[in-house]
Amino acid sequence: MNNQINFQRLLSLSKLLFGLNKKRMLYTVLAALGLGFILTILVMVMGSIKSKPIFEEHEANFVFVLIVFGSLFSAGAFQANRSKAGITEYLMIPASTWEKFISEALLSFSFSFVFYIVYWLYALIINSFLSGMVNAYFMPFNLDLSYYCLALVSYVFGIGIFQFGAITFRQMPFLKVLLWALPFFAIVFLLKTSADLSQNSLIGYDEYTHRSISYTPLVQYSTYLAIPVGFIFWVLTYLKLKEKEA
Amino acid sequence: MIEIENLSFQYTKHKVLFDQLNLQLTKGGIVGLFGKNGAGKTSLIKIISGLIFPQHGQVTVQGHNPARRLPSFLRNVYFLPDEVGGFADKISQYVSLYSPFYPQFNNERFLAMLSDFGINQTDHLKHLSYGQRKQFYICFGLATNSDLIIMDEPTNGLDIPSKSIFRKLVASCMTVETSIIISTHQVRDLGNLIDRVVILEGGQIVFNHSLDRIAQTYDFVQAGTDFVSDQILYHEEGVGQVKAIIKSSGQGHSKVDFEMLFNGVVQNPQKFKISEHE
Fold first, then answer.
1. What is the DSSP letter of B124?
2. Assigned domain for B278 exists
3. Is residue A142 within 8 angstroms of chain B, CB to CB?
4. Which of B202, B229, B254 is the last residue of a domain?
5. What ipTM describes this predicted complex?
6. Taking CA atoms, which of A32, A48, A113, B269 is between 20 and 30 Å from B45?
């Protein structure tokens, strides 16, 4: 059976992929952290302008940066596909298509996990050091991200689009995916904007975090859209890998 | 070991590479797959390895359909491409990451072969020249102890001493279980290494015979320019001499000249058809 999954082989394949991608992961995490820091400063400055010197955006920043850099990292999956020699070597690795598919997905998810830990540490440091230096109060990074659960679930499915781009396009998969997905993103953006403008977006208020919940049903549905669309792309990624030729 | 029946393959609608190609190869020995540039040697070995899929026909390699890319098939087949990559930093890293997939990998033999080529296992793959990278992949492929090793133009990029070491290493790795297919257009590089000659021309296998059979059937002679025989199948004129392939007289075997045989078969395959009673 081509679909067989052997734990030992999966482990060896994951080890191989991690070994070949560790530098890329490190650089992407560092770049993501850089953007996270810039966002922290920007939000702080904007908060000061609004006379609201409270920084409470760690989770929102984390989710935003994760989506941007997680997509970028996922688009870099199937590194072997960047060259003819690479894809030949990769396809000849004695592992099933399922094992190759799962190990690449695990690599992308491990980026999210690594970034989660690193961002939590970053938030801890920011809170400890900057609280006394600037006129702002830093809300701690909440380890329970259930508030952003929907966004994170959408992310898990959504990166399937970039994973598909990585196995489909040999050069610049991230940019090519963006180009191809531009009409789709434009529709989602228009839906979101029109929903925000035409309806009262304040539909809830979280007493504990003092945050407004701004999901309108339409906005919520458009976020949900990433789940089936992403799922389809995960399936397409598997099929594309199975049919890949060198 | 390899059975190909009615294989059809084309990259584009208007360029048919193989049409109803048939090939049978038995287990063991070294097969030299020869063909001109663009004859389809690389495509054929890629189909055998499961790297590309045929449009029609049946391909069976060691009892498997290569297109399914089963791990049980892939761990017994090593494919050395003409163009080699190299994503790992160090040779030792590559070996530690890739060798677990090959249960019969022999690290001691690998290091010994590497040292024959003068490569150190602490070397960085990216710092090696193309030829040295090729040498590294040859060593790794032979050390996997795979039942079937397929090499595409393995001597490309190798210097003259390395070609000799390559022949020595390949010969030393042969067991009754091992089969090696070497695809090349540099016929001379293989010397006396091969046991069987397969020639691909015009999308068909036009010649597929063992070395013994070739030696029994043909004589490879060198004579003066006045040499005349009604048994000449192919000849090449040189300075003051003629090299020719003639039907064997049955009086001893001459050394097979692969280059001349290849040229002769490609020029007129019909002349080199060996019937069963021959």
1. B
2. no
3. no
4. B202
5. 0.89
6. B269
